[in-house]
Amino acid sequence: MVASNFTEEFVWGSELVGRGETTRADTVVGFTITLFSTLSVAVGLLSLYIVYKLPIFHNAFGAFWVSRTVGEIGANFIHVVYSGPVTLLQPKDINPLFGIVSYMVCVYFAEIACSMHQYVSLNRMLAVCAPLKYKTLFTRRITTTIIVVTTVQVTSIMGLYFLFPCNWIGYGPQYYEFIFVKCGENERDWSPLGTFLNRGCTALCVVSLLMDCVTFYKIIKIRVTNKSAAQDEAFRRNVRFFAQTAVQNISMMLALAVIVIVNNERSFGKAVLYATTFDARILTYLNNGLSIILFNPEVRRFLGISKGTYDNRIEDSTTTAATASSQTTQK
């Protein structure tokens, strides 16, 4: 630990090593991190399997969902193999570079998940608000391009850590959170680049919430003005897809709000807040994976959770909606 008494010798990276002995709080926090992140990875893998097996997700929505889920799995996996174990063991002789690498890997995947989530919301908004244009807006080529470009953009942003000095962040087992690595006794105690990423992801989440509001307004309008369309199975499925996206946005926004408040700063007096922030982030990803089961009866039937007949020939909901709307227009 970097002591507050500056007469002691400064040791770079001392924030990222353990205290050498495990307390009861370390055990509780380390266990919850390991448990929640393991569950999140397992549910994420199940979500990928569901999307692969069910034709209703073989569309742009499913592609964006898969990309986001891969990001969430990558972010949580680092907690399974590093953050949880080092919190439980509190090793004092560990190399600080491991903590920095854990942050880089985790945030890289988390930023991909955050970036892709806005396209999930955009996809739902256009499926409900502009079903006739959906197929032309989300072709296979356009969807693939969005995913590739987004991944390249996130990779480029993460590369900024290697260009600007004194911005490194790493996992500090004594703090239960990703902590700024101080460069010297008189240097700042926060990372400008880390702050930019935290607030940037929060801004994307706000944009997603605004798109959800537009989608929700359109859904209410259709229910009020067009009773027959509101009863259409394709429309109802679109509503369910929207619901699972909106719930995720709310939980993610709450987690990001706390992350922005903490902002990777170091303070032992905030241990409870740090642990809550870390677990909230993991639980948000767990909620994302579970939502695909909660809001889709086709998924529950496929998993044997509820009764019903599963039909492998179920059509893409958005394609069905677009076709129905097209036929109505032609008439």
Automatic annotation (TrEMBL):
InterPro entries: 7TM_GPCR_serpentine_rcpt_Srx (IPR019430). Residues 42-296 form the 7TM GPCR serpentine receptor class x (Srx) domain. Keywords: Membrane, Transmembrane, Transmembrane helix. The keyword Lipid biosynthesis does not apply. The chain crosses the membrane at residues 28-51, 94-114, 142-164, 196-220, 241-262. Gene3D superfamilies: Rhodopsin 7-helix transmembrane proteins (1.20.1070.10). It holds the Pfam family 7TM_GPCR_Srx. This is 7TM GPCR serpentine receptor class x (Srx) domain-containing protein.
